[in-house]
Each structure stands twice: as C-alpha cells, then as structure tokens.
Design goal:
Blueprint (H helix, E strand, L loop, with lengths): L15 H11 L5 H7 L10 H4 L1 H8 L13 E7 L2 E6 L2 E4 L11 H5 L14 E2 L4 E2 L39 H10 L3 H14 L12 H9 L3 H14 L5 H9 L4 H11 L23 H8 L3 H10 L3 E5 L2 E5 L3 H13 L12 E3 H8 L3 H9 L7 E3 L5 E4 H10 E3 H8 L3 H10 L17 E3 L5 H12 L2 H6 L6 H8 L3 H9 L4 H4 L2 E2 L4 E2 L2 H14 E3 H8 L3 H8 L8 E3 L2 E5 H13 E3 H8 L3 H9 L19 E3 H9 L2
Antiparallel strand pairs: 1-2, 2-3, 4-5, 6-7, 8-10, 9-10, 11-12, 13-14, 15-17, 16-17, 18-19
Helix pairs in contact: 1-2, 6-8, 7-8, 10-11, 22-23
Length: 643
C-alpha cells in the first residue's frame, strides 16, 4: 500500500473526485491520473472508476495509514441493483446514469479548496452554494475541463481556475434539488430522477419555458395540482396530438406515484373514454417512436421492425416525427416479450434449477456454438427444455453430471492460466485425445474424459504455467523480432534499433536481418530477457517509485549521473541509475512535498525561506534541477521540529 505524505481530510458534502484530486495535488503529482497509476490503477481514471472499481475507493476507506479512514466520506461505494449501477451518496442511492463523469467546475468552490457533490449531477448547471453558472472549459486555453488531468486548481496550461470570471444566475432549481436531497427522503429522490427521465421525452418540455429541475422537484414532493396543471398545459399546447401520447412517459414511469397521478388525470379526460384496451384507462392512444419501441421491447432494430409488421402497428407522423400506435398496444408489447423469452418449465421444477445458454457461457466459459454441439452430440438429453425462438434451458443436475465425467479445454485454460493451443499441445504430447465414450464425441475436440487428465498431466500443466512468460511463448513457435518485442513489453522499433546499432553484440550473430528472425530463438530470448532485467523504461520506473512520469523526466533527464539511455523513442534507466534516483527522491523534495512532510502551512514555509532558515539546494548539488526548486528534507524537518 502506498504511503502518502498528505492525507486529505474529507470536507462536508465533498465530491470523491475532489478528495482524489486534493490527494494528488498535495502529494506532488501532476494530476489525478498519475496518482491513480501510482497505486496500481492503470486504466483511464474517471468519476465512475472511483466506485465501480473498489481499488480506488478502498485506498482511502480501508488504508490503516489514513488518519481519516473512519470519517464518513460522502460517496463510499457502488451498488448494483437490478442490473443498474447506483451510487451511494450520503446514505441515499442515485443512478450512475444521472452522474456527470466529466465534472464542470465552480471557481468559487475551488477558492473554498474543494468542490461539492452537487456539480457531479448531470442536470445541474448552476452552483447552488454560490449561485453562479458552472464552467466546462479553461478560460486560459479553451480546453474542456477534466478534473482527472488538471493539477488541482490549475489547468494544464497553468492557468489558475480559481481566478476565472463567474456569471451570476437566478435559477433556483439546483437549490431546490439540493434541499430535497439533503432532506434524506429516498423516495422523493428516486421520484425526482424518475421525473427527469420522463422529461427527456421531447414533447414534454421546452428549454425556453420550462425549468426541468423545478418541475421534477415539485413532482418529487408530490405536488399533485402542480403536476395536473403542467399536463393540462402540454395537452393544450399540442391539440393535434393524442393526450395519451403526451402522457405515455408518465404512465410508464418506474415511480408508482407518478403513474397513479397520470392515470387519475387520464380518467378525467373525455377523449380517453374511447379507449379500446381491455384494461381500464391503459393505452388506447399511446404512441411510441421507433427508438422508444426498441427500448420497451428490449430488442434490436431489425427485430423491432418485424414486430411492427407482424402486429400491424399504425404509423402516424406528427410535427415531422414518426410514431407507432395501435389499440391494445400494451397487450401487443407483452405478447412480443413473452414470445421471445417464454420457456415452459415443468410444474415439478423451478426456474432456479435450470441455466440458459447465456448463463452457461459466463459460468463455464464455453461459447454458444460449443454448447449447442454438446447438445447435438447427445449430452444433457434428460435435462433440456426447449422453448420458442431457440430458447434452451439445461438443468443444473445435468451440468453437474457432465462436470463429474468430462472436462473441457476452456476449463483447463482458466485453471492453469494457459492458452488453449498450449493446453492442446501438452495433452497431445501426453497421448490424451478427445474422449471416445458414449455418445461418440469425435467431433468435439475440446472435451476430454476427466479420468484421462491424471495427476501427472496436471503436474505438466502446472510446470508449464510456472515457466517464465518468454519461455512459454517460445513453445508456440513464432521467432520474429516483432514477436520478441511484444513478449518483452518494449516497442518494436526499439528492438530494431538495438539490433541495428548493435547495442547487445552477442545478439546480432543470431539475427537474420532479411527474414527478421533469430536462428536460436531460445538463446536470443534469454539474452534479451537478461538485458531487460537490468533496464526499466521510464514508465516502469515511475510506477515502481510511485511518482509521476513527467516529474521523473523533469528532474533527472538532464543530469549525467541519472540520465536515461534513449533507444529509438523509449527511455531506459539502468538498475544502478534507478537506485540513485530512488536515493535522491528520499533526500531532496519539491516545495509541495516539504509542506506536507513537515506539516507546515504555505505562509510558514515562505517565512522560513525568507529568513534564510531553509534554502533550496544549489547548482553544485548532484541532484540540482533547474526546472524546479528542491530542498533537503532533513533540514526542513529539523527546522519544523525546533519551532
């Protein structure tokens, strides 16, 4: 676990991205991404990564070195409910789709030293704490703001974002939502986001007239009269459109109160008394766009077109938009879904006792084609249920029986972390072929009898799995230079430069420049692997030392004692140089690290420099860096202890 010199104390209602950004800034990292890489998270860092990947959030919440690990961090985990990611914020859950992954920023919030959770909500455009509009780009360079790539309050162009001009706004919608949220009413919050989803329907809002946040907040607070007045206004504004077409998003909302309120309004309309649906006040005049039908039916575009044709949907064009409608549309949709998913289950069995092909693919790592080949070969004949549209369920008892007698190469590959081709080669060399039991599965080369995979063969698989990667790779046959580069994790042109400039002399006698292959691939690979053990790329070294790659370059590239070897376009540091860099990083630190290590305020640090108690190292010091001022950490700690 990485030990930080500065641990951020969570502020009230602070966004997790703010907490992460403050930690990176005060520990000397150039941005949050480099900080994330230093703790082993090498993928793109974004708002959703802070929760979906527990590695980042747990770094703060479960780190014994963090003095604030017991504090209530405003966001603390990601929940998955009914296949929808929801983020827990201060004890309430919010759909992840409602969160803005590329946050805007409020200059006044940055002046306070952090930003609040509210600016991470997708629909909020005004800061309710300062009543100013959020900005989404840097006034200095014009680039889009991305909290994970800027350096705390400073843009990549070094512009101080706290100094950006602000524009006052009279919009009270964000403030109403903030008050609703902090009230702690989960039902009201869920109703708010359900209303926002309904308001995405193009006919329901006018950006110039309606304030979606105020409308959604009033609906969330169950202002029934306000809701009815709003619907009546919309129906009046669209006299050529069926009232139920306007009401369809509300009548299909996931919130019960919204549905009931919309239904009660429908029952008062004379135009809806002619509803031809068998269910009272349901869907006589509801119309959907094509994309909405795809969403409701949960089908692709081709399947949706087929359903429209088979069920004879009526095509209506209103204001250059195409809608599809028919009487009893709810029953048509329900029937279409049932036809696609219905599989008859015997009365003596439960659905939990069966697995679909899709479920088997995930649990057993077998493709759908291989599963169907097993079925066609006669397996699972006592535990298969066939439904409409090629729906197939296989009983778990039949799957367990298969696993007791047979084993697949996919299972062996997952168990021993070897690819399928290596598995096949080892089994073929050991004289093990596809099972020839009953039924005959000669056409299934990926299935073996479990009894044939003896302990000796399992030992061979373990030995191969424990071999170094480059030795395992050579067993597959390729001997070209570009293949060697991929195995050694270096660029191909770097390897070609090593060969052209004869940097490793004993390697050139084994290399054929015309075919770009090696005469003795195993010997050549061992030579290259030994060379790679002595050298680290700048990216590998920065990760090993937990520092930013750019900081490594600025501090050490110009010094002869720590200068890297540049081969092609890559930088390599010898192990001796790496140790010297590590030693200097422990002795000489920049100003931001000094303040954190010595627990000094910025004012105190400047006072110590002004009075001559702390001075930066001079140009005669072997660690001198002209691009930044460095200080002897031991001197700084001595001064902070005596004052």
């Amino acid at each position: 676990m990485l030990n930080l010199i500065f641990w951020p104390k969570p502020y009230p209602n602070e966004s997790p991205s703010s907490l992460f950004s403050r930690a990176a800034f005060h520990n000397g990292y150039s941005n949050a991404r480099s900080f994330a890489r230093s703790i082993g998270h090498n993928v793109y860092i974004g708002f959703n990564n802070l929760f979906i990947d527990q590695q980042l959030s747990n770094f703060f919440l479960k780190n014994n070195d963090n003095p604030y690990s017991e504090y209530d961090i405003f966001y603390f985990q990601s929940l998955q409910l009914k296949a929808t990611h929801r983020i827990n914020i201060a004890g309430m859950t919010v759909p992840s789709s409602a969160c803005r992954f590329r946050a805007h920023f409020c200059p006044l919030c940055l002046q306070d030293g952090y930003w609040r959770f509210i600016q991470d909500i997708e629909y909020i455009t005004v800061c309710p704490y300062h009543q100013v509009e959020y900005l989404n780009s840097c006034p200095g360079c014009g680039k889009k703001y991305d909290w994970s790539s800027v350096n705390g309050p400073y843009c990549r162009c070094h512009y101080d974002l706290r100094l950006a001009d602000t524009v006052h706004s009279d919009d009270v919608g964000p403030l109403k939502f903030l008050n609703l949220f902090i009230s702690g009413d989960q039902d009201a919050t869920d109703r708010f986001f359900a209303a926002i989803d309904c308001l995405k329907y193009p006919l329901l809002t006018s950006k110039k007239i309606d304030n979606e946040l105020i409308l959604a907040t009033n609906i969330a607070e169950k202002h029934k009269n306000y809701f009815h007045f709003y619907i009546a206004t919309k129906i009046k504004n669209h006299p050529n459109l069926s009232p139920k077409t306007i009401l369809s998003p509300w009548m299909l909302s996931r919130d019960q109160w919204i549905r009931d309120t919309a239904d009660s309004f429908v029952s008062t309309l004379r135009s809806t008394n002619q509803c031809g649906c068998s269910e009272n006040n349901c869907c006589g005049a509801i119309a959907f766009t094509f994309n909405e039908l795809c969403s409701v039916l949960q089908t692709n575009r081709e399947a949706t077109r087929s359903i429209i044709t088979n069920h004879k949907f009526e095509k209506v064009t209103i204001s250059d938009r195409v809608f599809y409608k028919r009487n009893n549309i709810c029953r048509s949709i329900k029937n279409s879904i049932e036809e696609r998913t219905r599989v008859p289950i015997p009365e003596t069995h439960l659905r939990e006792e069966f697995e679909s092909i899709e479920e088997i693919q995930l649990t057993h790592r077998l493709s759908a084609t291989k599963i169907r080949k097993l079925i066609d070969a006669g397996y699972f004949h006592d535990g298969i249920i066939y439904g409409k549209r090629d729906s197939i369920l296989i009983s778990k008892d039949a799957l367990d029986h298969f696993a007791q007698h047979y084993i697949t190469e996919n299972f062996l590959s997952r168990t021993y972390s070897l690819n399928i081709f290596t598995i096949r080669a080892i089994l073929k060399h050991a004289g093990v072929s596809a099972s020839s039991g009953d039924p005959n599965i000669a056409d299934l080369p990926f299935v073996y009898q479990r009894q044939n995979i003896t302990g000796d063969i399992q030992r061979l698989l373990k030995i191969r799995a424990n071999k170094p990667k480059h030795i395992r790779t050579l067993a597959r046959g390729p001997t070209s230079a570009w293949h060697f580069a991929d195995v050694l994790n270096i660029e191909r042109r770097t390897l070609y430069t090593i060969l052209d400039k004869k940097i490793i002399e004993e390697l050139n006698s084994l290399y054929n420049a015309q075919t770009k292959t090696f005469a003795q691939p195993e010997t050549a690979m061992n030579i290259l692997a030994h060379w790679r053990e002595q050298y680290k790329t700048n990216v590998e070294l920065s990760k090993h030392l937990n520092i930013d790659c750019n900081l490594l370059g600025r501090r050490f590239e110009h010094i002869n004692a720590t200068k890297p070897v540049i081969i092609g376009t890559q930088k390599f540091y010898h192990s001796i140089i790496s140790k010297e860099i590590e030693r200097q990083l422990m002795l000489y630190v920049p100003a931001c690290a000094v303040i954190s290590h010595a627990h000094l305020s910025t004012y105190s640090f400047r006072s110590l420099i002004k009075n001559g108690f702390i001075i930066p190292i001079d140009s005669d010091n072997p660690a001198y860096c002209p691009k930044m001022s460095l200080y002897n950490l031991s001197d700084v700690l001595l001064q902070s202890e005596t004052r």
